[in-house]
């Protein structure tokens, strides 16, 4: 047996022992000494706690039950153990799950959309998730909490109420926490935008490391982190690194338009409008002249039809299309013209 295998076995045994109603004070002291002996012990125990915490959620998840009972990667004995573990959750059986889980079970669910795609996900707790174009989300639910990681893009959450399991959305170093509410989060590199439609949210900062690992027993009870602020319905928040966040009134009509295949532009710079429309796939709008960037446009447009915007802009401004090859629509200023030759804002509604 290798050192790594020995550590894994000890970690699994400690998870079972510490969850038993027969654990003693001596067990607690021995466990703490084991944790302090090697950083690898902490890592292995953390991984096995995550597995244990996920067992309770499998019984209510149809897909998980099918994987556990019918996956060809599991031996006949492994399938029987998994089936029993989901139904009764016994200590010995859960220990077997810890050992057999390497046979192919996914503890986290991963979802992604391609440019131009909207996707609705029904989560195992009754919550729903609507993902916008080019987005990536992973979810891991346990008996004590519901974790969702927004890795990129934008998502709208309608959260099922569960006072015993907070719904935690992690965006980089920030956390948006809810119990039962409806809100959306958009990630843009180091920034995130939050819009709350219903209910209440708590915002935490600097929690990325805590999100990645389950809590471990410590010698002294730690104080739970306090929210940076709370949001109420109809509010929006811009989260950026090293910038104190400020809550502002939300334009829910504008922020929710993507859920209906639309984008609302309100005196938006043409450069920003092009970037927004380019998220949804199709030919990309390219500005070949920096003078075009500050032209402002307003209107309601289909997210998958960039030529609609181009058509309106070309009609209203001294701008022409110099290239349209199906992949790019390149715009340029008409020679001897400037943005001052046209209205400051072009408005349209489709």
Q: What number is the mean pLDDT?
A: 77
Count of discrete domains: 3
Q: Kindly state the percentage of residues in helix.
A: 25-40%
Number of helices: 10
How many strands, what sense, and barrel or not for the largest sheet?
13 strands, mixed
Shape: elongated
Instruction: Enumerate the spans where pLDDT stays under 50 for 5 or more consecutive residues.
Output: 56-106, 214-221
Which architecture of the largest domain would the CATH scheme give at its second level? Sandwich
Distance between the termini: 68 Å
CATH level-3 fold name of the largest domain: Jelly Rolls
Strand proportion, as a percent range, falls in 25-35%
Structural class: alpha+beta
CATH structural class of the largest domain? Mainly Beta
Structure summary, number of beta strands: 19
Q: Rg, please?
A: 26 Å
Order of helices and strands: HHHHHHEEEEEEEEEEHEEEHEHEEHEEE
Question: What does this 3D model show about the protein?
Answer:
With 350 residues, the chain is of the alpha+beta class. The protein has three domains: 3-103, no CATH class; 109-253, Sandwich (Jelly Rolls); 261-349, Phage tail protein beta-alpha-beta fold, CATH 3.55.50.30. It is built from ten helices and 19 strands. The strands form three sheets. Strands 1, 2, 3, 4, 5, 6, 7, 8, 9, 10, 11, 12 and 13 form a 13-stranded mixed beta sheet that branches. It has a three-stranded mixed beta sheet with strand order 14-16-19. Strand 6 (167-171) and strand 7 (174-178) form a beta hairpin. Helix 2 (25-37) packs across helix 3. The protein is elongated. It starts with a helix and ends with a strand.
